[in-house]
Amino acid sequence: MLKTHGYAAHNNHSPLVPYSFERRNPGANDVQIEILFCGVCHSDIHQVRNEWGNANFPMIPGHEIVGKVTAIGNQVTGFSVGETVGIGCLVDSCGVCSDCADNLEQFCNSATFTYNSADNISGGNTYGGYSSQIVVNQHFVLHISDKLDAAAAAPLLCAGITTYSPLNHWQVGKGDKVGIVGLGGLGHMGVKFARAMGAHVVLFTTSASKVDDAIRLGAHEVVISKDTEAMQQHRLSFDFILNTVAAAHNLDSFTELLKRDGTLCLVGVPDQPHPSPAIGNLIFKRRQIAGSLIGGLKETQEMLDFCAEHNIVSDIEIIPIQRINQAYERILKSDVKYRFVIDLASLEAK
Ligand code: NAP
Ligand code: ZN
Description:
The protein is an alpha/beta fold. It has helices at about 40-50, 100, 150-155, 160-170, 185-195, 210-215, 230, 250-255, 280-285, 295-310, 325-330, and strands spanning about 1-10, 15-25, 30-40, 65-70, 85, 90, 110-115, 135, 140-145, 175-180, 200-205, 220-225, 240-245, 260-265, 290, 315-320, 340-345. Strands 3, 4, 5, 8, 9, 16 and 17 form a 7-stranded mixed sheet that branches. The structure holds NADP nicotinamide-adenine-dinucleotide phosphate and zinc ion (ZN).
């Protein structure tokens, strides 16, 4: 077994603290990875605080992982020792159901998530990337181009694919007017992708202080979503709106901005339900409210390759792991530009 060090939550209210545990030795199809960087997703906070009601403790969060391959099993093809690789939100799935066959492993009924998920291979629960190393089946390991900064690429593994996938699925492109709601970890990637795909991008924010950043990141226009008059000016004009907000809020102010047949796609997962949307806003213009969950492995690799081609990474603030608890508090105050990334070199015990 592989002695591994990390930071864990032991309940839903105490700070994360150092924690040591063991990972399996790499099997024939496994890749062993020394973790260099791990992004901090708002989902980590939802889960550590048991806001989704499914927490298992101890919990080692982290599903935006970039590291170096340190060993490979004898059936592994396509990865070699020393290569930079990524691990996102998924580490296993059944491999035979229709979702897996369609390269949509995230929808597999037996999908194993990178942390806080039943581990069918090793037993117990999966432990994530706030740790020194990880062992993952090769199907769930991604290639990271040397053109991308390793730390700034880490958030692509969740924030990146979660925004790229719906923009791709709804075929956002030139001639489309696209809204992105919330300028956080997901939202700032949504702005970059929608812009790179050729759309006219409007960013909706509750934070007046983020307007200049939104333009710098690629938005053509910025609307303060609390300003009812400014919102009304965009009525009936959007083809697609991607909503990344992590808290329950009124969706009607966004559905009424959609054109006929437009879609509001939700990716935020608040701990409380949104107030019911007004049905009239939907049926009179055949508008849709949809949802999207990360993305499959094939699409995640496509997204990483798209990023290498278009020179897209996340805007990050690197922190030592000892500052993870303060980082959570800052994320909750929307005080992050625009993703914290843990430098695992800061772990004392390695
Ligand atoms: P984040 O960095 O905290 O960003 C969320 C942004 O939402 C904030 O920066 C803020 O932007 C806005 N916001 C926060 N509270 C708000 C409120 N009460 N009303 C209106 N706007 C508010 O979080 P994240 O890491 O991007 O994650 C966002 C959500 O997506 C979380 O719920 C997370 O669990 C979920 N998620 C889902 C998936 C998926 O597969 N569907 C994957 C990853 C994450 P402004 O300051 O600009 O208003
Ligand atoms: Zn995430």
